C-alpha cells in the first residue's frame, strides 16, 4: 500500500483514502469540528488521503434535515489542509453546477497552494435534484449538465496552466482574459478526478480525467463501466492505461460478528431488518471483518482499480474503524 497520494498515477501501487465525517448521512451525530480534526490526523497518520462530499443538505434517507449539520466541502477541506501536513485532500466529487468554473479554478489553485501541493481535484456533473431546487440552482437535463462539465474542465485546466490570461467562449460558459495567480503548486496541474457513471459522463472522463472514480458499484457493473471508458479512449486515441481507476465505497468493518451487527443497527433504517439492510446495500457497502473487506477490495483490484475512497460507517469516537480499515487495506 502506498502511504500517501498521487505523485505517480501510472504505477501499480494501491492508494486508499477515507471520507471525513461531515453530515452527509447523519454521521456527525453531535460530534464537533475537534472530532473531525482528530479523525483527519488519525487517518493521515495511518496513510489515508482525506475526502469530502460536495453537498449542502444530508442525503434524503436521513431526514429530517432540520437541525442536522452538513459541512460545506471546500470550506471543510481548506480547514483540514491547515491542520494536516502530508495527507492528500480531495472532493468526491465537486458538483460542477454549484460554482462558476473560473471561480472553481481559483479556489482549487488556492487550496493547492496553501496545502503545498496536496489537492486532488474531484469533479462531476451533479445529480441531486432536490438540492439544486432547494438552493436555487437550475437543474437541466443530464446531457446539458455533462456538456457544462466538459466546458468547465476546459476553462479550469486553461486557468491552471496558461501563463497569461485565459479566454473561452462556449455554449454555457464564457471567460474573458481571466487571470489566475498563484498557479497550482502541482505541475502541470493537480490531478483531475472525474466521478460518475453515465455513458456520456464516461466520454468526458476519457477526455479530461487523470483519475476516473465510479461510486457504489459491484465488480461486474464496474467492469462494464471500464469497458465503455476504454471504448471512449480508443475513439479519441487516448491511452486508456493513463487513467487511474478509482472506486468510492462505504464500509462497515468490525473484528467480531457481534460487533458488526451492532454497527449495522446504528446505520440501518429503524424499520428494516439486518438481513434486508445487507441485501439492499450489496454493491454499495462492504460489510465484514478486515479479512472480508480485503477480499472484496481484491476483487476490484483484479479488474484494475488502483485508487480506493472508503467511507467507514458508523462514525465512532474511538476511531477503531480506521485502524481496522488500514489492516484490511494492507492485505489487498
From TrEMBL:
The keyword Ribonucleoprotein does not apply. InterPro entries: F420_OxRdatse_Rv1855c_pred, Luciferase-like_dom, Luciferase-like_sf, SsuD_RutA_monooxygenase. Residues 16-264 form the Luciferase-like domain. Gene3D superfamilies: Luciferase-like domain (3.20.20.30). It holds the Pfam family Bac_luciferase. GO terms for biological process: alkanesulfonate catabolic process. GO terms for molecular function: alkanesulfonate monooxygenase activity. SUPFAM superfamilies: Bacterial luciferase-like. Keywords: Flavoprotein, FMN, Monooxygenase, Oxidoreductase. This is Putative F420-dependent oxidoreductase. The lineage of its organism: Archaea, Nitrososphaerota, Nitrososphaeria, Candidatus Nitrosocaldales, Candidatus Nitrosocaldaceae.
Amino acid at each position: 500500500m502506498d502511504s500517501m497520494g498521487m505523485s505517480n498515477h501510472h504505477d501499480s501501487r494501491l492508494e486508499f483514502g477515507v471520507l471525513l465525517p461531515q453530515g452527509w448521512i447523519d454521521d456527525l451525530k453531535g460530534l464537533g469540528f475537534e472530532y473531525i480534526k482528530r479523525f483527519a490526523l488519525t487517518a493521515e497518520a495511518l496513510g489515508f488521503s482525506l475526502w469530502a462530499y460536495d453537498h449542502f443538505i444530508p442525503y434524503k434517507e436521513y431526514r429530517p434535515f432540520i437541525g442536522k449539520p452538513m459541512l460545506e466541502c471546500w470550506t471543510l477541506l481548506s480547514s483540514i489542509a491547515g491542520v494536516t501536513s502530508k495527507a492528500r485532500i480531495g472532493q468526491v466529487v465537486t458538483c460542477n453546477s454549484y460554482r462558476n468554473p473560473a471561480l472553481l479554478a481559483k479556489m482549487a489553485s488556492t487550496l493547492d497552494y496553501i496545502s503545498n501541493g496536496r489537492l486532488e481535484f474531484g469533479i462531476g456533473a451533479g445529480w441531486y435534484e432536490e438540492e439544486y431546487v432547494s438552493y436555487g440552482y437550475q437543474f437541466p437535463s443530464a446531457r446539458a449538465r455533462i456538456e457544462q462539465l466538459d466546458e468547465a474542465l476546459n476553462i479550469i485546466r486553461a486557468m491552471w496552466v496558461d501563463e497569461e490570461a485565459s479566454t473561452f467562449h462556449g455554449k454555457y460558459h464564457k471567460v474573458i482574459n481571466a487571470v489566475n495567480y498563484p498557479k497550482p503548486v502541482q505541475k502541470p496541474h493537480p490531478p483531475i478526478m472525474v466521478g460518475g457513471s453515465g455513458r456520456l459522463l464516461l466520454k468526458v472522463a476519457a477526455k479530461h480525467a487523470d483519475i476516473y472514480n465510479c461510486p457504489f458499484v459491484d465488480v461486474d457493473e464496474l467492469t462494464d463501466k471500464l469497458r465503455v471508458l476504454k471504448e471512449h479512449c480508443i475513439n479519441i486515441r487516448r491511452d486508456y492505461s493513463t487513467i487511474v481507476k478509482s472506486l468510492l465505497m462505504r464500509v462497515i468493518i468490525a473484528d467480531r460478528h457481534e460487533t458488526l451487527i451492532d454497527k449495522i443497527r446504528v446505520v440501518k433504517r429503524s424499520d428494516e431488518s439486518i438481513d434486508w439492510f445487507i441485501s439492499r446495500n450489496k454493491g454499495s457497502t462492504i460489510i465484514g471483518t478486515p479479512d472480508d473487506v480485503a477480499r472484496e477490495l481484491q476483487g476490484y483490484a483484479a479488474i484494475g482499480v488502483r485508487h480506493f475512497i472508503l467511507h467507514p460507517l458508523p462514525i465512532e469516537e474511538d476511531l477503531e474503524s480506521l485502524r481496522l480499515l488500514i489492516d484490511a487495506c494492507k492485505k489487498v
